[in-house]
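Why run this: before we spend reagent on co-expression, it is cheaper to look at a predicted model of the complex and decide which construct boundaries make sense. The entries below are exactly what would go into the expression plan.
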Amino acid sequence: MPSVDMREICKYYPESGVKANDYVDLSVKKTEIHAIVGENGAGKTTLMNILYGLERADSGRICLDGEEVVIRNPRDAVRLGIGMVHQHFKLIRPFTIAENVTLAMEQRKYGVLLDRREAWKATEKVIADFGFDLDPGAKIADLTAGQMQQVEIVKILYRHADVLILDEPTSVLAEQQIRTLFDTLKNLTCLGKTIIIISHKLDEVMSIADRVTVMRKGKSTAVRNTDEVDDKELSRLMIGKGITYGFKRDASVPGEPVLALYNVSVAERTGHRPLLDNVSFSVRAGEIVGLTGVAGNGLEELEEVVNGLRKVDSGRIEHRGLDVTNASSYFLREQGMAYVPSDRLRRGSSLSSSVLENLIITSRRSFLNRGFFRRKAMEKFGREILKHYSIDTDLYVPMGTLSGGSIQKIILSRELSAQSDFIMFSDPTWGLDVASAEYIYSRILECRRSRAAILLISNDLDEVLGLSDRLMVMHRGKVVGVFENDGTLSKETIGEYILGLRNDFKGDAGNDGQATMGRGDGNGGGIDDNVVGGGSSRDCSDLSPE
Amino acid sequence: MNVIHNAVAIMAPFLLAAIGGLFTELTGMLNIALEGLMLIGAFASVVFASATGSLFLGVALGIISSVLVAYLFAFVSLRLKANIFISGLATNLLASGLTVVLAFKLFGSKGVIHFPGAPVLPLVSVPALERIPILGDLFFGHNILVYLGWICLVLAAVVIYKTPFGLRIRATGHDSSTVESLGLNPQSYQLKAILVSGFTCGAAGSMLTLNLQAFVPNITAGRGWIALVVIYLGNKTPLGILIASFVFGFAISISNYAQGFMEIPADFILAFPYIITVVAMIGYSAVRHYRSQKLAMRRDR
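The model came back. Tokens follow.
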């Protein structure tokens, strides 16, 4: 007897003309962990929103334990024992854990007053019953992402949910926290809970789920037991065609350094722990340098420093020997430094402007004729770009109406069309489906082939491991590890450095970097002494899709 | 200490309006309609009080009128999804126009209208205790609406911090999508908050006209706006609002008092509350800036 049975669910969005769910079936057994996988826009979240009552299906039936139910709103879902952990946490940050857990189902005294003590007790009971380690009196704002997620789960369990829906639960967690989450989930199934997990990280799905439903373009295409499939087959089911991400990162001999940082430091405004602490490295022509770490450890600051959006307090930045320390973004772009920012919706593009306007913004002056735009030339340029990068859209639609993948393709094509010798990518595939991510990867590798120096800042370990020639790890504003990516590097090793569990990197990292770093003579410098005969060749077919 | 005694009387309308405004502020809405709601209450209460001869009915109907207009404001803002700033502005313009038109239709005057028949606001007088320095001035010898303000303040503090309703109100202001995901309707809390602001603004307005036994067009004279400032100065807490409105009341009281024996131009005296507002807002933002810096420092350590 299945616990949750959704039959022929249809959901159509007339505004966008998208059939988000097209006769979708989902059958989840009691006390199993059931994963729903699919690309972005496959309809996973819509299906779960329907189950949780946030959206209503146009047609279809939902049965719980064999009985047909109607779920009009989250209140109905909660009453029926369904709870959902959203991708972005639904927590009130200034409130305590107990207040968040009991919100909307408060413990009362005298009928009208809040009973804080009972709220505390009830929260503590759930925490203890399910083996969490949380303090009911702690404020949400002081918690880590992993703890916040635990609070979300406690919140659901407090409402006596038997079915837990988790939407992309690992996307905000570090490697270690993911393991804790998985232990928690397995523990919950032992205690009789049923878990539905939305994901597009196949390796995680394989390790945690019992069964998996694959969705593609609004349809449920397959249901498999995880011990009977491998991630290759799953990814084939998701994409709907053969595996196409088997491109190779071929050998490349790095040239001279294009961008070099020497002991760059940025202090916190209030002057305590530095945001960037003596960061030194160089990026050479024809190589991809990957930079990774957990959010809050200096990646964002470095991204801004290299693009000229943030001033450094000490240290030097050189572009082809020219001192560009604290130069403006405008100047850096003039110098041929391109930038694909992680925040593609705000920093990377103007959503209310048209595709064409977004495409020409960096090269706008070449289209001027006595202060006015030459529309024909602009359109020609725009159409050529769209054609060359095979982007299927019109020049005059607003950026904001496009999908995340298309927006990123347009930003990418704008930055690449500038023929820069240095390109910084920051989380280039964040939130994109497999096909779009793959497209981005092939473009990045193409830049490398055309001898651009590439700095790839990414929180996605698979991505940096798959693409980088060299890999740097940042922790607390310092470069704590620099590795040649020769194929022997393991995700676990990197993970330990990322989380600061290991700080024993012997080599040219962080403060020690000065010793081996050439001091700004233009072509020396960098951490290139130990590269002989170029980067190693590596088959990237194991590059995990994001 | 007449200055303190007057300050308490002067602060009462600010306090009442700010209490209602606090509720809307906590649900995440900038309620600029306080001014208009007060004006409606001011007009309706004195008209009804003089028509019925009952103080209680006057105040009650004044409050009800203000709540009705608040409901209209809420309907336009929440249900019809109008921009709350624009609909608030519209409420203020409506109140200002409507009261003048009605005054003209009913009483044939666009100027000051006296209601000699309206009952006087009774004072709560305890002669023995009134003589206690400062405390006597603070707590005794005021009209009953001043005490209504204090009751409302205590009630507001209890509701906001001690009841599920208050918890949900605050949650709505911090993140309405969270409230929604828990199966509650954040808009219903916003509606209730607007109605509460209608209630307290109605009471605040009735105090203005019943004290004078007269209605003057736009008698509120920006008090609703100052109440908004009071909410921010009071850091969006009931106690803070009490202190902030006392500061305003005290400043105005001093300037009134100074008028008697100092050569201060009358124009300046009239402008004083507004000058205080500007200075207070600048001071507030400076303090906030300083605080956030200190907080950042502490977090860093």
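Chain B has one domain: 2-300. Chain B has a mean pLDDT of 90. Bring this page to Monday's planning discussion.
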